């Protein structure tokens, strides 16, 4: 009886602590953004630092190597993606009249034939409107950066967070093992075995999911980007990389990439063969991701369904802003582990197993 009360007290304390943490994170989301980002990155990168340290390198040199590798990888992505997307946007503005003609002369007739409808658009008026406002669109794009520069407080906050992130990440990576040990020492000794077992399960799920998902993102960015580049699509590499990096949101990355690539193919290719090649790249990519890459690197045993991931991103994002988006998947994985444990305890409880006396 005493053990049962102790277990209930443990779970009550955990529930109160989690509710308080969510409330506090929501209130301090703007301040905590670089710290939460650094903590998530430190959790992901700590195994790489440990492996370098096992090879005889010092802790400081190992984490500096890992941080520099991550920095140059992100910088390379920006240098590849941003110029290509800018050029693709300019090309889209210039070729909008051609897109209107394609919709009127090819797309709408096909839709009307298939659905037995009579949809139509006033192409002359739309073309004139696009022609008259194309200069305004270019001017709007040209004024984005200067207008952002006038928002001094916002720009200053972003720059402060970006400059603070590597410093906080350095200290988190340097003291990660010690922080984990100190947190574990705070757990009452009578609860330590049970809490340690739950924490180990959480670490296994989080590690497999986050690091596996990161590997999936890199592989799918390579598949989509390389495939679109091979078929000769302008800015296909940038579009494919963006689609691959967004696969952590189920279906959103592939859908957005398919939409952008389809639009680019319509503007670039004169025949439908180029459009079919683009669709083929995404069809092959989706099959590889669904049946090979994700099951192998992430696994099915984690229990995070696509609906769970989308709901977690939306719910925690609404509750805690950008910090909630950062913590959505880790908290969802933790919730899965706690849910499994609670269900197991419920099935083993006397309340569930008690039978009606004859």
Brief summary:
The chain has 358 residues and is mostly helical. It has one domain. The protein is built from 12 helices and no strands.
Structural commentary:
This protein has one domain. α1 runs antiparallel to α11. By secondary structure, it is mainly alpha-helical. 20% of the residues are buried.
CA radius of gyration: 26 Å
- Number of H- or I-type helical stretches: 12
How many structural domains can be distinguished in the coordinates?
1
Helix content: over 70%
Helix-strand sequence? HHHHHHHHHHHH
Morphology call: globular
Beta-strand percentage? Answer: under 5%
Helix-and-strand structural type: mainly alpha
Poorly predicted parts: 147-151
Query: What is the mean predicted local confidence, pLDDT?
Result: 77
- Main sheet specs: none
Question: Alpha-carbon distance between the termini?
Answer: 25 Å
Quaternary structure: single chain
Structure summary, number of beta strands: 0
What would the keywords be for this entry?
single chain; 358 residues; mainly alpha; 12 helices; 86% helix
What topology does this entry show?
Layout: H1 2-27, H2 29-54, H3 59-94, H4 96-115, H5 123-150, H6 152-185, H7 192-230, H8 236-245, H9 252-268, H10 272-297, H11 306-348, H12 350-353
